[in-house]
Amino acid sequence: MRGALYGSLVIVYLFLGGAAAGALFVMSAWSFAFRRSENPARLLTAFESLRSRTYTVGFLLLAFAMICLLGDLGNPGRALMVFFLPHPTVITFGAYTLAIEALLAALLLAASLPNSPLTLRGRWLDIVEALCCIGALATMAYTGIFLFQGSIPFWNHWSIIVLFVFSSLSSGVSVVLLIDWFTQGQSLLLRATKPLQICHVACLAVEVVFLTLFVNAAFRNPLADASLSLLMEPEMLAIAGVGVIGMGIALPITLETYSITRKECRAIPVSDFICLLGGLCLRYCLITCGVH
After folding, report:
1. What domains are there in the chain, each with its CATH number?
2. How far is residue 52's CA from residue 183's CA, in Å, rounded to a whole number?
3. In angstroms, rounded to a whole number, what is the distance separating the alpha carbons of residues 209 and 30?
4. Looking at residue 70, what is its pLDDT?
5. Mean pLDDT of 46-74
6. d(Cα 173, Cα 280) in Å, to the nearest integer?
7. What is the DSSP string of the chain?
8. Tell me, what's the pLDDT at 65?
9. b/e sequence 72-89, b meaning 16+ C-beta within 10 Å
10. Which residue has the higher pLDDT, 259 or 127?
11. What percent of the chain stands above pLDDT 90?
């Protein structure tokens, strides 16, 4: 029964929803700061291009995450009831949080398009981007709350919420940096992303702290023994060691730190690809071990 409640769609939903919210938070916060600094016209044009692309990707990822959530609910009628006959449940909170964040992303996307009839400037843009940041934080937190409230011993520690927030932020930074790298032919921002890379390393460091707290709490909880036994099996341990710790934390920290210390910009964003894979592995391990 638990496996049916937390299937593969939930894993994809939690990963994509968190990564999308992280990217929208990073882009909105960066946009807010960027407008308050002196920048040449060419850099401003490049940033607007990156901003529009990031809001597009963030919106699409959120939309797909919502499809996964609604698909996991089983039938269209139940999915519609979440919105039209809401009850005070975590699922309802998550559905509305995703929907509101998607609407804010769509609004920012529409306003960022060239020749768009919708314009957001000055205070109005500040307000919408601030709301987008708040909605993104709520969405990232929800991806952890969704598991924390599930009455499953392996997840029964508050650190899983903070862990998912910083894992989502880390994934979001990677999404933005990947978009920036793929558009570098039109964008001049590769050298301007050094502060973002520093933030990425900081997110990963905090993620290490709360992953350690979570694992320590699980080992101290005798009711989580079955989940830990599955985690210690060779196949799952390999995914946790190589995927979660290696690809999700150790390699990105190493590669980002090396890149930060170099004068030239990054040649290939390897750390961002593997960081996203590591974030997916984290959710796979926690959910799979929790429900068995």
Report:
1. 2-291 (1.20.1630.10)
2. 12
3. 25
4. 74
5. 85
6. 15
7. -HHHHT-HHHHHHHHHHHHHHHHHHHHHHHHHHHTTS---HHHHHHHHHHHHHHHHHHHHHHHHHHHHHHHHT-SHHHHHHHHHS--SSHHHHHHHHHHHHHHHHHHHHHHHSTT-S----HHHHHHHHHHHHHHHHHHHHHHHHHHHTT--GGG-STHHHHHHHHHHHHHHHHHHHHHHHHTTTT---GGGGHHHHHHHHHHHHHHHHHHHHHHHHHHT-GGGHHHHHHHTSHHHHHIIIIIIIIIIIIHHHHHHHHHHHSSSPPSS-HHHHHHHHHHHHHHHHHHHHHH-
8. 87
9. bbeeeeebeebeeeeeee
10. 127
11. 51
2 residue type, one letter: R
Q: Which residue has the higher pLDDT, 170 or 191?
A: 170
Give dist(CA 35, CA 130) in Å, integer.
14
How confident is the model at residue 21, as a pLDDT?
96
16: left (phi over 0), alpha (psi -120 to 50) or beta: alpha
Quick one: average pLDDT of 222-247? 94
288 within 8 A of 230, measured Cβ to Cβ: yes
Token output for 202: 């900081």
Query: What pLDDT score does 261 carry?
Result: 83
Of how many residues is the chain composed? Answer: 292
Given a cut of 90, whether residue 190 has pLDDT beyond it is no
